[in-house]
Design a protein that fits this description.
eight-stranded mixed beta sheet; globular; Glucose Oxidase, domain 1; binds phosphoenolpyruvate; 20 helices; transferase; eight-stranded parallel β-barrel; 546 residues; TIM Barrel; alpha/beta; PTS_EI-like; binds magnesium ion; Enzyme I, Chain A, domain 2; PEP_util_CS
Length: 546
């Protein structure tokens, strides 16, 4: 047995076989061509491999989710048999003297551009498909192995680190837990693990090699300990611990449907953070009272090209409808920093966390922003949708964002398309600048939601991704708590509601502090809903000895 220590991301116990994460290497489009015949041969072989993979995926998906949902894999197989596509690749290899990788990549970009330029929104959405099938062929060409979980019912993923988009590509139904040698507890991958409610330990500093694939591993997310190939005593002790945890979870069930209210009657809204519509099941399961943060950028991370207005509209509408009349706060695109999307072609930066991200991208690329705002406004006709702008530092940014929103709304009115004219508009308070001028910002918006993850990073000047700095990181630093208190005070003075949607909102040791500050809403990962409700209901703010 090997005992490994790291940092816990989610308190839970997971026991299962270890599957190592294999990273797809970046496109090998730079490889020199090995001669026309050889490259044509390689391409045809890789195409066949890709078709066979898609057939296997189709069969698995039919079994799991039914024919309708599986149809996409059939369409992808058809696209890989399309004469125009095949001819373009082979012509580029033949007359362009290109490697198979380069020819496939060039064809993918040409076809994607052609699809995007079409009027029909269905055809526009095919751009993502052509990129997807081409990436599959490229992976087959370079012999890059996909992380194949088909042999397992449930697994623990071992990796050096996982990016948010890599995590999203995994079959999360099968994942019992994560162990990563790198990574920090505040990274978006850690946040994803929390959203999914799965045990995870990061920053173990112990890389795994192929020889441990398939061994039993236990993650104790309460202590941040990982046991590789456990002895029978440890296994038995951990199974008992898992049973106790399950019993506490079952006890929390009695809180379903009860208000999130202190003994003396102070009630708050307890909402969930989600990344995509796949998380809606968790929202219902854990009895969230609304959605306080829909990280819309995950729609972009999951895609191989820009999601269209229709794609986004479908996701937002589904969420609004699933929540009935309950509030759904959709945050506009927060790409940048650790959330990288290749097709945005963002320049490499020395300090990406302080660079072109979030609202800065949206205001610099109005065409992109407009599509998202249209999708969002259209979805507002189907529920109680609120829009929230991230990474705000100034009044000017709010005014410009609101002006774009108004333009979009006028355009929809002119087109006779319905939207909610009362839709709330809020901002994230996640920069020290925003917290400090929150008295002025409050006059411009309907609510504030405090992003404690970034607020902490920017206030303490500690990179949230940097695991080596965890020892210097103090989530309860008085500067953070003062900024939060100031924001609540300024928000209330202007008559608006103030919530917290960063990870600190789920910190039970601060729940009382937040309530005493007068916080109106806490938005946490779905699995944290009932524990926070239990905490709030145990408090009595009339007690003065705090
Ligand atoms: C935050 O910064 O606290 C936040 C909620 O946004 P994200 O974690 O997605 O950056
Ligand atoms: Mg943030």
């Amino acid at each position: 047995m090997l005992v490994i220590r790291g940092k816990s991301v989610f308190a839970g116990i997971a026991i299962g076989p270890l599957a190592l994460f294999h990273r797809q290497s970046a496109s090998a489009a730079q490889r020199p061509a090995a001669g026309i015949e050889a490259e044509l041969q390689r391409f045809r072989q890789a195409r066949q491999t890709a078709v066979a993979q898609l057939q296997a995926l189709y069969e698995r998906a039919v079994e799991k989710v039914g024919e309708d949902e599986a149809a996409v894999f059939e369409v992808h197989q058809m696209m890989l048999a399309d004469d125009d596509y095949l001819e373009t690749v082979e012509t580029l290899i033949g007359s362009g003297n290109m490697s198979a990788e380069a020819a496939v990549e060039r064809t993918a970009q040409q076809f994607a551009q052609m699809f995007r330029a079409m009027d029909d929104t269905y055809m526009q959405a095919r751009a993502a498909d052509v990129i997807d099938i081409s990436r599959r062929v490229e992976a087959a060409l370079c012999g890059c192995q996909d992380t194949d979980l088909s042999a397992y019912d449930g697994v623990i993923i071992g990796a050096d680190d996982l990016g948010p988009s890599e995590t999203l590509q995994l079959d999360t139904d099968k994942i019992l837990g994560f162990v990563t040698s790198g990574g920090s507890t505040n990274s978006h991958t850690a946040i994803l693990a929390r959203t999914l409610g799965i045990a995870a330990v990061v920053g173990t500093d112990t890389p795994f090699h192929d020889d441990v694939e398939g061994l039993t591993v236990i993650i104790d997310g309460y202590t941040g300990t990982v046991y590789l190939d456990p002895d029978p005593e440890t296994l038995a002790a951990m199974e008992r611990k898992a049973e106790t945890a399950a019993a506490h979870q079952a006890a929390l069930e009695r809180l379903r449907g009860l208000p999130t209210q202190t003994k003396d009657g102070k009630r708050i809204d307890l909402y969930a953070n989600i990344g995509n519509t796949g998380d809606l099941a968790q929202v219902a399961e854990h009895d969230a009272e609304g959605i306080g943060l829909f990280r819309s950028e995950f729609l972009y991370l999951e895609n191989t090209t820009y999601p269209t207005e229709e794609q986004q509209f479908a996701a937002y509408k589904k969420t609004a409808q699933a929540l009935g009349g309950k509030r759904v706060v959709i945050r506009t695109l927060d790409i940048g920093a650790d959330k990288k999307v290749d097709y945005f072609n963002l320049e490499t930066e020395e300090n990406p966390a302080m660079g072109m991200r979030a609202i800065r991208i949206c205001l610099s690329r109005p065409a992109l922003f407009r599509i998202q705002l249209r999708a969002l406004c259209r979805a507002s006709a189907f529920g109680k949708v609120a829009v929230m702008f991230p990474m705000i530092i100034s009044l000017d940014e709010i005014r410009r964002s609101k002006a774009m929103l108004r333009d979009v709304q006028e355009e929809l009115t002119a087109q006779g398309i319905a939207y909610d004219k009362e839709m709330e508009v809020g901002i994230m308070i996640e920069t020290p600048a925003a917290a400090i001028i929150s008295d002025e910002l409050a006059k411009e918006v309907d609510f504030f939601s405090i992003g404690s993850n970034d607020l902490t990073q920017y206030t303490l000047a500690i990179d949230r991704q940097q695991t080596r700095l965890d020892d210097f990181f103090d989530a309860h630093h008085p500067a953070i708590l003062r900024l939060i208190e100031m924001t609540v005070r300024n928000g209330h003075a202007a008559g608006i509601w103030v919530g917290i949607c960063g990870e600190l909102g789920a910190d039970l040791s601060l729940t009382e502090t937040f309530l005493r500050m007068g916080i109106d809403e806490l938005s946490v990962s779905p699995a944290a809903i009932l524990p926070v409700r239990e905490k709030v209901r145990s408090l009595d703010l009339r007690d003065v000895d705090v």
